[in-house]
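Reproducibility note. Readers wishing to regenerate the assembly model reported in the main text can use the exact inputs given here. Chain order matters: entities are listed in the order in which they were concatenated for prediction.
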Amino acid sequence: MQVFTDIFSSDNTRFLFAGFLTTILVSIITVLLSIMFGTVLALLRNYAGKRVFGKLASVYIEIFRSTPLLLWILICVFMLPFSTALGRGSLALILYTSSVIAEIVRGGLNSIAKGQFEAARSQGFNFLQTLWYIVLPQCFKRIVPSLMSQVITTVKDTSFFAQFGIAEFFFNAKTLMGILPQKITITTAHIFIIFGFIALMYFLVNFSLSVIVRKCSKGDEEYQFYSE
Amino acid sequence: MGGPFSLRRWARLFADYTLFLEGLGVTLLVAVLALFLALVLGVIFGLFSTSSFKSLRAVSRVYVEFFQNTPLVIQIFFVYNALPYIGIRMHEFLIGVLCVGVYHGAYVAEVVRAGITSIPKGQWEAARSQGFSYVQAMQYIILPQTVTIVLPPLGNQAVNLIKNTSVLALIAGGDLMYRADSWASNGTLSYGPAYVVTGALYFLLCFPLVKWVRAHELRIKDRDTRQHAAARAGA
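Running the prediction on these inputs yields the following structure tokens for the assembly.
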């Protein structure tokens, strides 16, 4: 029990939860912006494929899908001249996640029967109205499971930031492991409990997300797209 | 040394190109071995999750949920930093293969499970009633039929696996990303060329797979529409 009181003193707990809060906030912002940007990319690639912007969207998606996230984090954190490390890292995560979400949204768009489009147009909806009122709502309903598994992946991906001095959850936990030996003699139990706590926190967030999705999407399982 | 992409930086990079090739070799080797491990684990746990034994299903559930819901970064740091405290020390290369393989095994298990459950139960019952054992029915009847449908998601997993081998860079694993980053940050600071070349190499590994997956998905969709059309014409 001494081990627990060593690790989870009120200062340490506050420190860990501050990092945890950053992780959650960064995840939420990243997911929201990536869904917006990813949807734009998907629409461009699907409905403007022959025009310049459609082609650019295709190239963007292909490049980001075929290169590791870590590469983009390194590029943004070390080479961009503006903002803080947190801002640049989040930018990298948003750029990367958008490309994955774009492909998920495209899968949803392609699964919608052509007749929906034709019916809407014949009722006098213009192209954008058709997308906004008819196609996108159905598309998003169908891709909820794949989208959620990408949200989970994004939460996990924020742990890359720890390597770049960005004070998110894993970084703070690693920092704690670094400063604990100055105050107490650290044992194997300390290290294992801290790692266990880190894994538990990520697990709680992600597992609850996956349970919520499974509850909501009972019966819609044929629309799984198996993104990571 | 001029701008971040100046000619002199490129010249330096091409003088040290063997370093990048070595890194690429390590990345490829880790990816191939980890993919093999992931496939083996995936098939085993995929079969567990469709088994009639509750305990096997539970084991598979725990494995899949744990590895899908915790970050690979944490898993690799646990093996690298915490396991030595209890006397388990492994080479970074082995850590890479194990961690990436076990992590993606959880995803492959879900793919295999979905593949098996997509085959109508009648196939299974027919095979068993003809005297096939569990292993025979799986080996000759069920699993071969799942191959076509599980290949696209498995291809996606392979792409993600190749990209995820880059976590080795975090523990100085000598892979492509690590070599590139340490080359750039050691004195020359030629980040620009290093990252462009690294990105291009990863792209060369992953893009053919991505293309193949998309083509294969289209073929399946095509086949399904033709089958539906044929069924309707027959009825």
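We highlight two features of this model. Chain A has a mean pLDDT of 90. Residues 19 and 169 of chain A are 4 Å apart (CA to CA).
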